Amino acid sequence: YQYMLSRALTKACQAISCRAFASAAPAALPMDFAEVPNVDELQLKEPDKKRKLNMCTALNEAMDLALAKDKETLIFGEDVKFGGVFRATVGLNEKYGTDRVFNCPLSEQGVIGFAVGLAADGSRPVAEIQFADYIFPAFDQIVNEAAKFRYRTGDNFNVGGLTIRGSYGAVGHGGHYHSQSPEAYFAHTPGLTVVVPRSPIQAKGLLLASIFSPDPVIFFEPKILYRIAEEEVPEEYYELPLRKAEVMKEGKDVTIVGFGTLTRQMKMAAKMAEEKGISCELIDLRTIYPYDFDTIEKSIKKTGRLIITHEAPITNGIGAEIATKATEKCFLHMECPPKRVCGYDTPFPFVHEAVYLPNRVRLFDAILESVNYQSAQIKRKDYQ
Fold first, then answer.
1. DSSP label at residue 66
2. Helix axes 262-274, 360-371, angle to 10 degrees
3. Half-sphere exposure at residue 192, Cβ-oriented, CA atoms within 13 angstroms
4. The pTM is what?
5. Strand partners for 306
6. Which residues are catalytic?
7. CA 74 to chain centre
8. 139-153 confidence digits (pLDDT tens)
9. pLDDT tens, 25-60?
């Protein structure tokens, strides 16, 4: 059975219906991180005070501000005292002491169980799971304890101060134990909020909003962006709204929805489409659950077409949920069925990572298929 799984992706790529890189193998291009910050959303007091940060240092700055704002904020996890495996917490122990920034034993279940207890007692714990792939030993603590604490106590107690950080997604060389995207497991659990940022500005604002949210939050950080994503980040404290998607680029022909790293591929695919005269509207979901369907619905009713993309396997992923709801709510406004450009239903591959991941060319193919779609009924009429 394991052998069959390991061969599944290779066989899929050899099949006629699946081309490894869609239309053609994409040439290496630098990812475009240039964005115009949404000043109205940020509501900055001193918009001119900013400095260049990558995503890792933006997260570090957010945790620094959270520790300074509330003495009940605690940060802990495996190697966190020394800065963490990705150096996201570097310098915080020296600044705030071991009582507030400290290491935990190598036990994800223990880390999260401890965090749930602290949050129930009124603290504001920020617990780190080094890799999202290793969050599963803590699954019971998250979905049966943290998510249901408020409900099962009749709102007498809650763990709303709990934030769980975890590095997630592809990194280029992680293989099946350091590259997974497990957001869909938690997006099926009422009581949790699941967040994925796309950039340093977003990471800082969304993490601060998560730490001070009244609900427990799982904050998945695209680790491939830790160093390569850089922006001029405002120095002051600011929060970005949870449960609110953002229209990154307005368009009129196709709506593309994604989050995290894949927003870069969405932007590059949209540029390719523009060369063909196709206008794409790009939406960053930001909060995966509960997600903002109102923004998506408004866009679909304008464009009539929908593409959803994510790194996780296609079956039962977030894309399936959004596509189904779009069909339920927007069916009479749609020019073609929703399309999903996602990872394949295999374990995350090491050698075939470039084949497995959605990219701008696969997205561009989906755009072309959407705008050129003709229903079977129309085709039958043409044939007759």
1. H
2. 50
3. 25
4. 0.90
5. 255
6. 108, 178
7. 24
8. 999 999 999 999 999
9. 455 556 666 677 787 888 899 988 999 999 999 999
